[in-house]
Amino acid sequence: MATNSQHADPAGTLPAGPAVRDRGSGAMGLIGASWLRFRAWRRSRPFWAGIFLLVAGAELLLIPLPMDSIGLIVHIGIGGISGILIGAVLMVAGLLLWFHPVQRMFYSIVAVLLAIAALVASNLGGFLIGTILGVVGGSLGFAWTPLPPGTAPRRLWRRGPTTPADTGTTDFVSPGGVDVTDPQAATAGAGETAVDASDATPTTNTSAEPGWGRLDPSWGAAASRHTRPAPYYRTSHSRGTVIGGNIFAALLSLVTFGLINLSPTPSPTQSADPPAAAATPTPTPSGSPAAVTSPSPAASPGSSPSASTTSGGGTTATAGPSPGASPSPSPSPTPTGTAPPFALSTAQSTLTASSVSMTGFTYDGVVSVPTTAGPVQMMQFSASTLDLNGMQLAVTQGGATMTTTASSLDFSGHVVLYATQLSGDLLGIPLTITPSTPLATILQLLGQAGVSQLLPLTMTNVTTSQPFTSADGMTASALLIS
Amino acid sequence: MSSDPTPPPTSHRRARSGGTGAPGRVRWRRFAVMFVPAAGVTALLLGLTASGALASSFSISGQQFKVSADSLSGTGFQQFGTLDNTTTSKIPVAESEIGSADLTNLCQSVATNLGPFGTWTLRITAGQGSTPVHADSLIIDANQLSGSTATFHNINIGQDASTLNAVSGVPTGVAGTFGQQASDVSISNLKQTAYSTSAGTFTLPGFSLSFSSSNNECF
User: Fold this and answer.
1) Is B194 at the interface with chain A, CB within 8 A?
2) Is the pTM of this model over 0.90?
């Protein structure tokens, strides 16, 4: 109760103390006391503005960032990062409105601006919900004004004895009242404070004036409130300034950076930039040797590790059949085949088709193709067209199998197929060829003689292991990946 | 408080609660000074978005949603298998990445079961008119993807997912895993069940956003 009366009665000298204490010492005194304390705390800051901003921030934050998968942040790119940052800053702004209400103007304006920016930067502002809550919360924080000192305690004392039920219920009313009594409360409240301010100090009188003119003096009033003794601010004030202010400033700079970086080519690796990029300008050459050497190498690999690896592969998408760029580590065992210029997958994969029709089909021999697990001996086939019917591609990796099916899959133009095993019925004869079968050699000889190129071939019940296919074009019908 | 059995005369108190008894309160005219222009700017940005003049950035993850489009045509395509975290489990997905995509008649929906409040569906549609939806650096993790016809050019199927380079500035797969890429892609009657998506810029001409208290998904 002692602390409560401090909260409820900032002046500490007015006779409100006994009145409050009488009420609190009932049967439910403890609950009543803590409720009173919470109410006093709540009323002395823009409480509902904080609630709105916390909910808005959480909503914006959780759409790109589900609670249990922080690791996904690598995947989600700059859109998700700006959403997370905006959400975090809105939540911090909400907390700071509670614990550092003196700077509520700044926090509120920042919150409103960020809530609007989220519309562009993060999932249409969390599908409008986050933006609306943030704008309302920021506006509430902006509009919240402390009553002039002297009025509040006197009211408490005056109303205490006359309407004793007051304490428990006004709290529930005031959130509703905030919404419902919109214009009436504004005018009535302003009128009342103006009357009361007549016996208060002249400075508070100006801030209590109704109308548009109220805006400007209150900015000054907020500043002058620093110097006035205001006990319900003082305890939380110092803490909020140091910790909250720093967090807020840091998050704000991150958001600014994120928004600036909303370029058409976002890359998740850019998220690693802010610390590095911020670090580079600050250390001047005159600094310590460690500071000079460390930032520049740290910033350059951090800026584009993925971009360099991806673009470093060169030759972009058309790299497939072009043999010129082939950095094949080991010389091909056969002169006809050419290894692909990039590593092939080593995941367990099987391609099956009920029938395969090929034109211009040749067997190019066994090729040592690069994989991340070292070179693998594979057979290489070429064709001008390759049409698969009833195809299914099953890839098993990480304990999960993904299946691609299509009623027809037609490759055309410079079709190249690599596989570790090929089996099927050719002209009714079941065949299975691997890099080590003698059949492969026969096929190669036939291919070199140009026999198979002369006539279209059809194989049925085809199964291919570890297939790699590249072609100038591919058309799939009834494609389904699941 | 609870020792007082008499219910309060609320109407009388509500009128006074705005200005009395509290150390601070909301001044509604000042609220309007901030809220009205902010709402105006918000409406303006929404209007620009709907006209296709302003691009939005999207990033959703952790919940199943559905995407459909009458047609998708994209430049720069790559795809590989990976695992997506959801709130309950890890789900194998095919991560499709498209450098620049145009989609007609795009529909995106999320159905959420809110327990006692029933099932609610958020649905966004855009690009029905002559101007298609445009997305840059589009990434979709789908555990099911279908199209009535799909055409690719300069395609590689079976490339190591860590060496994919058809789209720049997007993550690639784990070394050794199965990947594919193509210089361009066009898919008709696209349907995807996805768990996460992100797009750096997304223009949504003619977009509409609706909440409905039933299952109103795209397909």
Assistant:
1) no
2) no
